Amino acid sequence: MHWMENYWSYSLTVFMAFFAIMNPLVNIPIFVKLTEGIDERKKK
Q1: Average pLDDT rounded to a whole number, residues 19-36
Q2: What angle do CA 37, 31, 42 make, to 5 degrees?
Q3: Percent of the chain with pLDDT over 70
């Protein structure tokens, strides 16, 4: 079961890297402001 510990450690590392790169907490207000006058269909 040693490989399972490595798997979870690796998965957590990858998730944290993606989270740091994308930084959704900062990008949400920027996205909202940039798409302010656009209708819902175009936003999607």
Answers
A1: 85
A2: 50
A3: 93
Residue 4 Cα distances to 7, 11, 15, 19, 20, angstroms: 5, 10, 16, 22, 24
How far is residue 14 from each of residues 3, 30, 43, measured CA to CA in Å?
A: 16, 24, 28
Locate tokens 């990008």: which residue? Answer: 27
Q: What whole-number distance in Å separates Cα of residue 33 and Cα of residue 41?
A: 16
Helices 2-22 and 24-34 pack at an angle, to 10 degrees, of 30
Which residue in the block uniquely carries the two structure tokens 């450690």? 9
Predicted confidence band of residue 27 (pLDDT cuts 50, 70, 90): confident
More confident residue, 4 or 41: 41
